[in-house]
Specification:
By secondary structure, the chain is an alpha/beta fold. The protein has helices at residues 49-53, 99-102, 129-142, 158-169, 181-189, 203-210, 224-230, 267-272, 289-301, 318-324, and strands at residues 3-9, 22-28, 37-45, 61-62, 67-74, 84-87, 94-97, 110-111, 149-152, 173-178, 194-197, 215-220, 234-242, 276-279, 309-313, 333-337. Strands 3, 5, 6, 7, 8, 15 and 16 form a 7-stranded mixed beta sheet that branches. A 6-stranded parallel beta sheet has the order 11-10-9-12-13-14, sandwiched between helices. Strands 2-1-4 form a 3-stranded antiparallel beta sheet, with no helix packed on it. α8 (267-272) links the parallel β13 (234-242) and β14 (276-279). α3 (129-142) packs across α4. The relative contact order is 0.16.
């Protein structure tokens, strides 16, 4: 019988999450019956969206999230012992996947792509959901053309750092914002034309200075005040891909169903500039997953895309790694090694 360690959400976070919102418990897994698989986590992801989900999932249940997992025990011919997968069963060291679950359409269980000599942790980073979010969000929603000006905030994070580099590959001018001088230096290394620390820079004044020709594409990971200040600097017919809103994730007034009359998107600006603003989830392109990952891997191998990970060692670090996202601790993808 396999014992799993599981981090549960035991208290609804108020504002920024705290360690007391989580508890680590042990769970006895069912036997690995015919068609079943048991996996062991190797790398686990922490992402800003999890704060939003912490308002929704039932208390005393497993915290949501993805992981790169090794098949630990198998009675399923499609999954050999020692093979690797990416699944979304949350913050747990071991997972029982039943035959019925594995046969369910849309179960978000995928074989880990062939990484070659690249680290397997990239399967929950640049060669996983964050990479595809950047790839499809920028190319399908913003539709950048050569010589367009692209604005990216949260540019040192897992998604933003990929967006910066993809935009440069497409021949765009890139203006980026990040949250510390160290992150600014990193984004400059990625090739962005202009990079600013949003904590020490007036966003509107900076954009007025470096984008007099106006911004054609805005990949928004932050929302809130930043978006309100940036929007007037978009060109007519500008495109905005709304990927995230980390500035509001700890604002409990943003619960689903709450009605608010405040928005960073000015109706007058949207109308007069004829802007196209579109929110998206990467699962829209679930039938094209490998297209994005194969292209991103090729760009990495060609030296056109760099990546960086902030690695936390030990399953016990899960809550701290997650909370650190809201303190700006990570550069690139935040990953916990189990």
């Amino acid at each position: 019988m396999t014992t799993a360690k599981v981090w549960q959400l035991v208290r609804r976070p108020v504002g920024k999450p705290t360690p007391e919102d989580f508890a680590c418990v042990e769970e006895q897994l069912p036997p690995c019956s015919d068609g079943d698989v048991i996996t062991e986590a190797e790398y686990l992801s922490v992402d800003p969206y999890m704060r939003y989900r912490a308002r929704q999932i039932p208390l005393n249940t497993t915290m949501v999230g993805s992981q790169v997992a090794r098949v630990f025990e198998s009675n399923n011919p499609q999954w050999s012992v020692g093979s690797f997968m990416v699944h979304y069963q949350g913050w747990r060291t071991h997972t029982h996947l039943s035959r019925e679950f594995l046969q369910t359409k849309g179960n978000n269980v995928l074989p880990l792509p062939d990484m070659g000599e690249l680290p397997r942790s990239l399967g929950i980073g640049i060669l996983g959901m964050p990479g595809n979010t950047a790839y499809f969000g920028l190319l399908e929603i913003c539709e950048p053309k050569a010589d367009d000006t692209v604005l990216v905030n949260g540019a040192a994070g897992a998604v933003g750092s990929a967006v910066v580099q993809i935009a440069k590959i497409k021949g765009c001018k890139v203006i980026a914002f990040a949250g510390s001088d160290e992150k600014v230096a990193y984004v400059k290394e990625l090739g962005a034309d202009h990079v600013f620390n949003y904590k020490t820079t007036n966003v509107g004044e900076a954009l007025k200075r470096v984008a007099p020709e106006k911004i054609n594409c805005f990949f928004d990971n932050v929302g809130g005040q930043f978006t309100a200040e940036a929007l007037p600097h978009l060109a007519d017919f500008g495109r905005v891909a709304v990927c995230g809103a980390i500035s509001s994730y700890n604002d409990d007034s943003k619960d689903i169903g709450a009605v608010t009359l405040t928005s960073p998107f000015s109706e007058a600006t949207l109308i007069w500039k004829q802007l196209r603003v579109e929110g998206f989830l990467v699962y829209r392109w679930s039938d094209r997953i490998m297209e994005g990952l194969e292209k991103l891997k090729l760009w990495i191998l060609e030296g056109k895309i760099k990546y960086r990970e902030t690695l936390y060692d030990g399953f016990d670090k899960m809550p701290g790694a997650f909370i650190g996202l809201f303190d700006g601790e990570n550069i690139g993808k935040a990953v916990v090694k189990a």
